[in-house]
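TA notes, week 10

Several of you asked for a full example with nothing omitted. So below is the full record: structure tokens for the whole chain, then the designed sequence directly under it. When grading your own attempts, check the secondary structure regions first.
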């Protein structure tokens, strides 16, 4: 396994060198994921307690229907937790691999955002855990409750829980996507404002496609998406568009 070192934009590497670097970064990412999984599995009782905390007390004793289901469900939940924990390191390895392909101007646009990505992901996970999940669970468990005998199966609930947290972290990347489009001159602030109604439609479709089929969780997920989109426009207007003379003389991506 090759020792990783920063690669400059002007440095020319052979195909073998690129593949060797890619292999090394994949191995580092898998090692980080494996270590995160080991720690999560060691503390699996804590993770399962945290996952069940949004449930009402009478539903926290989740049901399993097969001898192996408790073990496999624990492994699955710990795998999701390991992905969430190791996501910042894995994302760094991805960006470190592709960053040399960008020009110095494009690097100046991207590098500040790399610090914000894990913070926004964490904010999305926290928002999903404390805001989206309790409201969605309350609505779903109380919907037509007189007509059903409700028992929660562990596998389905923990899958719903994990996917909701991951989706919350992903959708909070909206400002990064918008700022990247503006900084790379793929879009302008004027275009973002002009196409606001189409963006709202896409946000509504995205919120409907996220985990949680009930209208309550859909509306709760739409609110931060709309706010993040509007915040992205403000940030793009203030700091997103290149203003220095050197950048202004460079051709935009749209012109190329």
């Amino acid at each position: 396994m090759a020792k990783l070192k920063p690669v400059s934009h002007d440095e020319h590497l052979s195909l073998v060198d690129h593949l060797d670097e890619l292999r090394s970064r994949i191995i580092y990412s898998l090692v980080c994921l494996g270590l995160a999984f080991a720690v999560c599995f060691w503390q699996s009782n804590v993770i399962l307690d945290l996952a069940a905390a949004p449930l009402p007390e009478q539903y926290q004793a989740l049901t399993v229907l097969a001898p192996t289901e408790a073990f496999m469900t624990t492994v699955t939940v710990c795998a999701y937790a390991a992905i969430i924990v190791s996501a910042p390191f894995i994302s760094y390895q991805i960006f470190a691999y592709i960053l040399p392909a960008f020009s110095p101007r494009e690097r100046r646009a991207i590098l500040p955002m790399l610090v914000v990505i894990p913070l926004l992901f964490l904010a999305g996970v926290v928002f999903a855990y404390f805001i989206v999940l309790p409201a969605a669970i309350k609505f779903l468990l109380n919907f037509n409750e007189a007509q059903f005998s409700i028992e929660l199966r562990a596998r389905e609930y923990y899958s719903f829980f994990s996917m909701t947290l991951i989706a919350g972290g992903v959708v909070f990347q909206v400002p990064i996507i918008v700022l990247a489009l503006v900084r790379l001159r793929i879009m302008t602030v004027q275009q973002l404002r002009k196409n606001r109604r189409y963006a709202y439609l896409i946000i509504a479709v995205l919120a409907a496609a996220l985990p949680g089929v009930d209208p309550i969780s859909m509306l709760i997920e739409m609110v931060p998406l709309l706010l993040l989109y509007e915040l992205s426009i403000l940030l793009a207007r203030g700091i997103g568009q290149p203003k220095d003379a050197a950048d202004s003389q460079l051709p935009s991506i749209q012109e190329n």
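The chain is about 70% helix and 0% strand. Use that as a sanity check on your answer.
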